[in-house]
Amino acid sequence: xxxxxxxxxxxxxxxxxxxxxxxxxxxxxxxxxxxxxxxxxxxxxxxxxxxxxxxxxxxxxxxxxxxx
Length: 68
Known about the structure:
With 68 residues, the chain is mainly alpha-helical. The chain has helices at residues 3-20, 26-32, 38-49, 53-67. The protein is globular and about 40 Å long.
């Protein structure tokens, strides 16, 4: 496994965790994951989850709300 693929996988998993928490803004999540530019984070989210980060977050929260 290459360093780049390991970094990408780790960022994806951390993004999933951070986006599930409402205390982090999207810009803060991008910063915490080491993206220099928020637009790079938005593109990565679309690649990882098929959705921009705000829509992915809304989907997570909708699913969580249905579980209760």
